[in-house]
Amino acid sequence: MKKALSILFLLFVAFQASAKDHFFNRLEKLYEKDSKNCLIVAKRHIKFFPEQAASYFFCAKIFEDKFKKAKNVRAQYIHINKAMNFALQFDKLSDEELKERAKWTDFKVELLNETQELVDLLDLRNDFSQKERLDDKFSKLNGDYVDVVIVTDKNEIKNVFNVRNATTLFYGMPTGKEFVESASLTEEQKLLVLINQERKRLGMEPLEWEEGLAKASRYHSYDLATQNYFNHSSYDRVDGELVKVGGTFDRIPKYYSKSFVNGENIAAGYQSAEQTFKQWMDSKAHYKIIFNPKSKKIGIGVFYYENSPFGYYWTMSTAL
User: Residue 195's beta-bridge partner residues?
Assistant: First the structure.
């Protein structure tokens, strides 16, 4: 009897898994053919089967598509807010197999980048209530708690950093003397080449490499990875909460003060310069910073931390 029950249980589990796969495939085909109908079906499925994750993923994708097509900030906020709501539910309910099938990591990085871009815009417009709502959802989707380790001895910092076995090495605002090793000097230079090739094509002057800006960029990429956040301002984790310790243009001049610092781009999730360049080219706000005709200097920093949500983090800083 026990053996029979075991077999029945395994058959039931297999049937459930097969049903989930079938529904995901159905929604995927429907999304490619008719996203409007896909949204109707997915929402109806959520109503009757709220614990099944696939529907939330496609709802998130469809509202992200709507965000990309929106013609004003209000519409962008409405759509990205809904996309984030569904994304949070998918992240909560899905297993690793489903996340892999949905290419969740790529989509999550894209959604976080778009949300951060809109948060920055809302901040400039003084739309603080909407900014706070998105900020809260951004923090929840961005990752889990990372312990804070305070290190003060410079030799200890270098030794711990080189083996990369600590959750974080620096705390508070940098002094400009912190040493952060690039994950790939080659990829940093590749990105510089891609940027300058496109600037040349547009009839613009190429940007000149500035190591001080590169050091500032590497530090911020490192901080994003080890403190587990994604923002232009600098933060620390204190008792599981993000605490702002300084702004973008407070931090960068610690490393570079020869001329006016006028821009910063951040990205996460990709190892290669080509993929990161495409991320920024596809974003209006990031594109404007790369192709600002007033900019003369640039520094790029990529950092990898295996225990971070996205692995690779990129920062690009520009100055006059």
Answer: none
Q: What are the φ and ψ backbone dihedral angles of 261, each rounded to 5 degrees?
A: -80, 130
Give Cβ neighbours of residue 155 (< 8 Å, ≥ 6 apart).
none
Residue 184 and residue 186: Cα distance in Å, rounded?
Answer: 5
Alpha helices (H) in the chain, listed in sequence order: 2-33, 35-48, 54-69, 73-93, 96-101, 104-124, 128-142, 154-163, 185-201, 211-227, 248-251, 273-281, 284-290
Q: Between the CA of residue 297 and those of 35, 84, 259, what are the distances in Å?
A: 43, 35, 9
Q: Please give the pLDDT value at position 238.
A: 77
Check residue 162 and give its pLDDT.
34
Instruction: Quick: pLDDT tens for 162-201.
Output: 323 334 467 788 888 888 989 999 999 999 999 999 999 9
Q: What is the DSSP letter of 308?
A: S
Answer for the pair 280, 299: CB distance below 8 angstroms, yes or no.
Answer: no
